[in-house]
Design goal:
The protein is an alpha/beta fold. The chain has twelve helices and 15 strands. The chain folds into two domains: 138 residues, Nuclear Transport Factor 2, Chain: A; 207 residues, Rossmann fold (3-Layer(aba) Sandwich), CATH 3.40.50.150. Helix 7 links the parallel strand 8 and strand 9. The protein starts with 5 loop residues before the first strand and ends in a 28-residue tail after the last helix. S-adenosylmethionine binds next to loops.
Amino acid sequence: MWSAPRVSYMQGKLFAPAIADVKPPVLDYLKAFDSRDVERCLSFCNEDTTFHFLWRSFRGLKGIANWHRDRFAADLRVTRVDEISVEGNTVDVDVVVTSNKLKARKVNQVGARITLRLERGALKDVKFALRKPDRSGTTESTGPSLYRSYVGPPENYDVAAAMQFNLLTFLGLRDDHYLLDVGCGSLRAGRLFIPYLRPGRYFGVEPEQWLIEEGIQNEVGRDLIRIKQPRFSNDPDFTLTAFGQQFDFILAHSVFSHSSQTQMRRCLSEAKKAMQPSAMLAATYFKADANYMDEEWIHAGRSSFRPDLMDRLAAEQGLVCKHLDWPHPHGQSWVVFATSSGASAVPDLTGIGKYISYADMAPWDTMTAGA
Ligand SMILES: C[S@@+](CC[C@H](N)C(=O)[O-])C[C@H]1O[C@@H](n2cnc3c(N)ncnc32)[C@H](O)[C@@H]1O
C-alpha cells in the first residue's frame, strides 16, 4: 500500500538534502506499523518521543508501546495513502484508515493525517488527526460520527454538551440572552442551546463549515434552524465582532485547550469588544506547570497553560478571571472572564464537584478516541 502515494515536496526549498533524509525512515516506520511489529516501531522512538492520538498524548517508550498494542488489538489499518508531503524535518501523510472500533460504530473508514517530525534520526513527535472531508458526504472521509469524533471523544459527546448547558444555565443564562459559542464545532452544545434560547439569540463561530452543516443535518435539524434562526461565521481568526451583537454569555469550550497564547489574546480582546458590561465568557483550558509557547493551533493533542497566565490575559483586557470548581470529564479546567462587576455575579462554586459525577462515563485514561 506504500507503493504509489502522490509525493509533493515544498517547491524551491533550499533544504532539499534534508528532505531526502526524512522520508525513508517515516515510510519504514509506517511499514513496521502495517506489519504489527511493536519492537520495530519502537526502534524509531526514544524516551522523548510523544504520540498525539486525537485527544490524548503518549510520551516515552512504555506509553508508546501500549499505544501500539492497543491500536493493533483494534486492528487499526491504513487502507489508502492519498498524499505524502515533506517540509524540513516534518512529513505529512494523508491516509484513509479503518479499525474494528470504527466498524463497531458503523464507520467503515475515515480520512486522517499523520504528521511525523524527526529529530536526530528518531521520531520526535507523531500526530494522528482526523482529516476533514474534501467534499461533505464522501464515503471514505465521513462516517455517521466523524463530525462527533472531530470535536472530542465521541463516547462523551452527550455529556460534554450537558456539562456546558448545565454550567451556563447555572451561571445565569436565560432564554432571552444572547450567546456566542466560539469554536461551536458540530453544535455539540448548540443542539441544547439552540432550542433553549429564543429566536436569533444563538451565534456560533467555527472555521470548519462542514462541522456546522453536519451538526445541523444530524443533531439539530432544519426545522429548528428555521424556527430559532441561529447565526454562524466561519472566521478563522477569532473575529467575534462581525455579528454586530453584544453578548450576555460567550462560551469557548475546548478551544483554549488547543490554542496558542496569541490566539487566546486575540480571542479575549475580541470578546471584550462583544461583551455586555455584565457578560461572562466561560472557557476551558488544560492546567500545567509550564505554558505552551508555540504559535500553532494544536488539533491532535492539546496545549496547556499555567493558571496565572489566565489571570494575566484577563488583566490585559481589563477583565477578571475567576477559576471555577466545575468538573470536566476530560480533566480540563473552567474559567470565567468578566468585568469586575460581572465577576461579582459569578457564583461561588467551591465544593460543587462532589455533586457532579462523571463516574458512569467511559474513563478518559482508557478511552481510545474511537479508532
Ligand atoms: C475541540 S473542538 C470543540 C468544539 C465545541 N466547542 C464543542 O465543545 O463541541 C475545537 C473547535 O474549535 C474550532 N476552531 C479552530 N480554530 C478556531 C478559531 N480560530 N476560531 C473559532 N474556532 C476555532 C475547531 O474547528 C473545533 O471545531
